[in-house]
Amino acid sequence: LYRDGSPLHLSPESSIDAQKQLGADIIIPLDELPAYRTGRTELERSVAMTHRWEARSLREHLKDPRRQAMYGILHGGTSAALRARSVETLCAWPFDGYAIGGSLGRDRVELLELLRFLMPRLPPEKPNHLLGIGDEESIRAAVALGVDTFDSCFPTRMGRHGTILTSDGPLTMKHAKWRTDYRKLDERVDGVVSQRYTRAYLHHLVRANEPLAGSIATLCNIEYTLHTCRQLREAILNGDV
Questions:
Q1: Burial of 81 (0-12, 13-18, 19+ CB in 10 A)
Q2: pTM score
Q3: How many C-beta neighbours within 10 Å does residue 113 have?
Q4: In degrees rounded to 5, what are phi and psi of residue 164?
Q5: CA angle centred on 130, ends 163 and 190, rounded to 5°
Q6: Average pLDDT for 215-232
Q7: DSSP summary character for residue 184
Q8: Is residue 205 within 8 Å of residue 174, measured between CB atoms?
Q9: What is the pLDDT of residues 172-209, one digit of tens each?
């Protein structure tokens, strides 16, 4: 535990119970995340164990669904054979949707190669989710391949480190060039933070090590990410994606 360091036993069943108590709309089963360079034998063992945990998680969830959804998590690293096995196994079970997890490759090239392999194999009538990916370029490329939703700490982490995501690209606010730039953080994003504060002001806060800088930059990045997703939804409805 974070308070006193005593061990806490987490099982597939207890993880589901915790998410139900939190009132989660989408519940994710307990799984294991092997590293990118995990060997084939160890990766096979991990995928098999994760599938067992997911089966237990699903059984626990179905005892009391509570109008909550549960997604199965597809594993297998960058192995096409193991990913196909994971799809075949989990898509035979009554999950409400599917999340793509595990190691997603060493870079965006491998990520997109994996998605090109996986997306046509997922049931089109159920939603899908890409775990841990949140940069704009990857989101745009993954949406074009059929990914529905995403989650990531990327926008908030960038904000904490003083970089804002804008229509002009990522901007590192510590640079002196922003000292007299009185433009809004992002004039093309309709957001409270993006329209209220200037780049010069945020630069001042960053240089002064003012904690408020991280809060403003984080909110700016969330607004920009939501703005990007709205654009993508409109493009999908217009048939442009």
A1: exposed
A2: 0.91
A3: 13
A4: -105, 145
A5: 45
A6: 97
A7: B
A8: no
A9: 999 999 999 999 999 999 999 999 999 999 999 999 99
